[in-house]
Amino acid sequence: MKRLAKGRLLFMLAVTTLFLAGCGEPFISTLQPAGEVAQTQYDLMLLSTFIMVGVIIVVTVIFLIVLFKFRRKDDKIPKQVEGSHKLEIIWTVIPILLLLVLAVPTVAATFDLADVSPMEEKNEEGKTDVTVVNVKANLYWWEFEYPNQGIVTSQELVVPTDEKVYFNLLSTDVKHSFWIPAAGGKLDTNTENTNKFWLEFNSEKADEVGNIFYGKCAELCGPSHALMDFKVKAISKDDFNAWAEDLASMEEAAQPETASAEQGQEIFNQSCIGCHAVTPTGANAVGPNLTTFGDRTHIAGYLEHTEENLKAWIKDPEEFKPGNKMTDQYGNLSDEEIDALTDYLMGLKVED
Amino acid sequence: MSTYAQKKGVGAVLWDYLTTVDHKKIAILYLIAGGFFFLVGGLEAMFIRIQLAVPGNDFVSAGVYNEILTMHGTTMIFLAAMPLIFAFMNAVMPLQIGARDVAFPFLNSLGFWLFFFGGVFLNLSWFLGGAPDAGWTSYASLSLASEGHGIDFYVLGLQISGAGTLIGGINFLVTIINMRAPGMTYMRMPLFTWTTFVTSALILFAFPPLTVALFLMLFDRLFGGNFFNPDMGGNTIIWEHLFWIFGHPEVYILVLPAFGIFSEIFAIFSRKRLFGYSSMVFATVLIGFLGFMVWAHHMFTTGLGPIANAIFSVATMAIAVPTGIKIFNWLFTMWGGSIKFTTPMLYAIAFIPTFTMGGVTGVMLASAAQDYQFHDSYFVVAHFHYVIVGGVVFALLGGLHLYWPKMFGTMLNEALGKITFWLFLIGFHLTFFIQHFLGLMGMPRRIFTFNSGQGFDMANMVSTVGAFFMAVATIVLLINIVMTIAKNEKVGGDPWGDGRTLEWALPSPPPFYNFKQLPLVRGLDAFWIEKMEGNKEMTPAEPIGDIHMPNNSFVPFVISLGLFIAAFGAMYHNEHSWGIPVLIIGMLVVFGSMFFRSVKDDHGYHIHKEELMDDDKGGKA
User: Fold this and answer.
1) Which of A311, B68, B257, B398 lies in the 20 to 30 Å Cα band around A223?
2) How many domains does chain A have?
3) Does residue A241 lie within any of the structural domains?
4) Per-residue confidence (pLDDT) for residue A285, from 0 to 100
5) Does the CB of A49 have a partner CB in chain B at under 8 Å?
6) Which domain holds residue A325?
7) Residue A327 pLDDT > 60, yes or no?
8) Which among A91, A102, A173 has CB closest to B328?
9) For residue A282, what pLDDT band results from cuts at 50, 70 and 90?
10) Among all residues of chain A, which has the CA nearest to that of B307?
């Protein structure tokens, strides 16, 4: 009898897991955890779901019995029952026990996920031994600074897999919230204090999604809140180091390779460079760093990475991200100028 | 009283309602105003669902969408759910405790008009340059950055209507403490009265933090304050704390009276006294108390640190215990009973599984480590709609059918009522169940659009279809109300046949003085006790005597109007020179009418006992 119950439980567990895993896309779903944090949270979800489904089943059974058994059949007045101490104690004590079962792992996980002590330990060079990213949230884009590597990128977060990555989160304007659902829960980017947490990205899961996870802003921040997406490129530690070294060694902007791109560079240097850097330094910029623009997978964080989209975006950013800070900052550019600019921007690459 | 009203012209009826201090008429005012705002909030909800039906939709623009979502939340909480609950509290609670009115009839009227003018002010933002757009939570950094006057409408409108709510809460507290009929001890009070009592206490402690928060925001936005400006040493997290110290108890302010209404419905239509009455009372008080200890669970991702998160996590889970006690007590009230499936009872029955769902997702949200995933995702949207629609709105709809005869003397059509119920129930689960999964699949809340290819398309479409079911249900309800008013078939004092508490011992609607003689209460379910002993009426606790009644007054309307005018002055004083004068004029109207009220003695009037005797001979109305 006991074994049967256990078998049934395992079966239910398997079915639920399968069912939930069918939910959503692996690059964005919390139900297909791609790292230690998301896995911890997913396990807690499963545990609480099982407890709660148990509660719901008990309630439903009593509920159905009541509905079928105690319909009004005649005009008799039923016995007026005051209550039952025994029953009342039962349904006070059992829920308390169930909640304890959930509370203990919850508290343990809460402390575990908040443990950022390794990022506080500095070595002789004043750097940390772990990967640290300083995230700055802006209306409506993200800046990622790697203090150990001395580089800055934006919109696409590059992280090494299979190790804890530590984040310092801060906002430069209004409150946002930093969320990579597949990798783990969110943390707000406040305007007055730096929040810290860590995430981990599993290399196998990263392979499954072509190394790209989706990130979101989860706190209402204005008209284009819905479009404040970013992408996470999770690559192996070696690839990450190579990428970071490539970027760090760049002392001047990538040189244009075609005549049109050269023309684009001139326009860029007149109209854009005030806000957008094309070398991987200078944190706290006004606009997103474009050093690796050609390597990105998306334009403005959410549009497909095509020349047409880039041209349309430069022509009228307001149409895509209402309330953004780029609109009207660079005068009117002619179509030729935009074409040239596009050639130039698409050529900004460090990867091959 | 309605017979008198029919003889009067429209103007006279209107004047009567503008000046009334009768709790039953104020209840009707709350019902009409709250019902109107419910429809407005519902319309906003439909716009939200239409916009999100398909990916990349452009039914409304991003900015307008934010205004709609803000106004949907704000309207539904402050201008629909609260006043509708106040409608039933006003209509029923004084009758349930055997009182002739509330303790302060004048304040009762003032509370209503403040709410009403605050609500109108807030909604005028649609026509005066744009509604607030920072969410109903209006977090400080965003709301200070918000352009235009939307947030000012939010701050001033809620300040005015919040004052009305606070006044109402204090009034109910005093009424329940002081005005119970002879024999109506605390432990004989019907559960709806108990929940009104606890809710009023919550209002007393929860609204002042909101008032403070709104004042700070007001000064930041309009008078150069820097309370929430980090560059000047301010702090935006303070707003989050103040808002949620109010905001979490607010949830219980809404849901406890809903529990009260359901407790009445279960007992009436099961023909059984409430199972475990004293543990129900205890659980209500405990929920109210714990409700103040858990606000930071709305801020798990703010970065308060693991110690605060763990404490608030466990404290929040503890609330599940008294709530569970209630669910089982309701089930066992029906157990062994004789259940009649009327429309109110259908809502109560549907409430149990629906609210249990909302409760268990609440426990999941309480668990801080998981909440980092749920927070600000559609999972939360699903959760609070299960609680607020499945708990509060079901109670309001059930309560509307249950108390309609007591308030108006006619019965809503049962067949149409059941059609509304089924459409609403199906639509509700269709809309919101799938939103749990949308959240888990990574969809943040408060987004005006989404790209396809993220797995959100189908579920959003299903959700929108469900919303239309609820819209149709609401239309059927409106038809039902219009038909019932047109038919005007009067019913007796106990139209459901199984009334247990004092309000059912009175005619429907009750005479304006409620009880000719205050009733003697001999136990819980006082009217039921008399019925079981073969009595048709309550045993009186006093001989027939003169009844002291308050005079009608137009002053509450004028005070509220003054604040309404002053609010416009405050809002525009930075850009128009007439701002400050209008502010001063408005405040003069307020203080002038207060002064008038203070110096002019108004002793009310007496209904003489001969008139009461005559009423008897003239046949019972």
Assistant:
1) A311
2) 1
3) no
4) 86
5) yes
6) 259-346
7) yes
8) A91
9) confident
10) A111
Domain locations along chain B? 23-537, 553-621
Which residue in A28, A176, A219, A319 has the most chain B C-beta atoms within 10 A of its own C-beta, making it the best mutation to test that interface? A219
pLDDT in tens, B8-22: 788 999 999 999 999
**In this complex, do A99 and B139 lie within 8 Å of one another by their Cβ atoms?**
no
State the pLDDT at residue B7.
Answer: 61
Q: Chain-centre distance of CA B246, in angstroms?
A: 15
**Reduced to 3 states, what is the DSSP secondary structure of residue B161?**
helix
Residue type, B228: F
Give residue B620's pLDDT band: very low, low, confident or very high (50, 70, 90). very low
Q: Residues B106-116: pLDDT tens digits? A: 999 999 999 99
Q: What is the pLDDT of residue A10?
A: 67
Residue A283: pLDDT band with limits 50, 70, 90: confident
B455 and A62: CB-CB below 8 Å? no
Residue A272, in any domain of the structure = yes
**Homologous superfamily of domain range B23-537:** Cytochrome c oxidase-like, subunit I domain (1.20.210.10)
Is B551 in CB contact (< 8 Å) with chain A? no
pLDDT of residue B158: 96
Beta strands, E only, chain A = 131-138, 141-146, 151-154, 156-160, 164-171, 176-180, 184-189, 195-200, 212-217, 230-235, 298-299, 303-304
**Smallest Cα–Cα separation from B559: which of B78, B58, B172, B112?**
B112
Q: How open is the CA angle B584-B587-B590, to the nearest 5 degrees?
A: 155
Yes or no, beta carbons of B276 and A82 under 8 Å apart? yes
Write the CB contacts of A341 (distance below 8 Å, at least 6 apart in sequence): A264, A267, A268, A272, A314, A333
What CATH code is carried by the domain that includes residue A294? Answer: 2.60.40.420
Average pLDDT score, chain B:
94
- Res B6 pLDDT > 80: no
Indicate the residue type of B569: G
- For residue A216, what is the nearest residue in chain B, using CA coordinates? B444
The confidence score (pLDDT) of residue B611 equals: 85
DSSP A254: P
Which residue in A80, A92, A213, A303 has the most chain B C-beta atoms within 10 A of its own C-beta, making it the best mutation to test that interface?
A80
Is A126 part of the contact surface with chain B (CB cutoff 8 Å)? no
Residue A22 in this model has a pLDDT that exceeds 80: no
b (16+ CB within 10 A) / e for B276-303: bbebbbebbbbbbebbebbbbbbbbbbb
Query: Per the domain annotation, does A92 fall within a domain?
Result: no
- By the CB < 8 Å criterion, does A184 face chain B? yes
Is pLDDT above 90 for B91?
Answer: yes
The encoded tokens of residue A273 equal 């460079």
Does residue B302 belong to the interface with chain A, where contact is any CB pair within 8 Å?
A: yes
Inter-chain residue contact A185 with B301, CB threshold 8 Å: yes
The pLDDT value recorded for residue A13 is 64
The answer as to whether A313 is a domain residue is yes
Chain A residues closer than 8 Å to B376 by CB: 177, 179, 186, 218-219
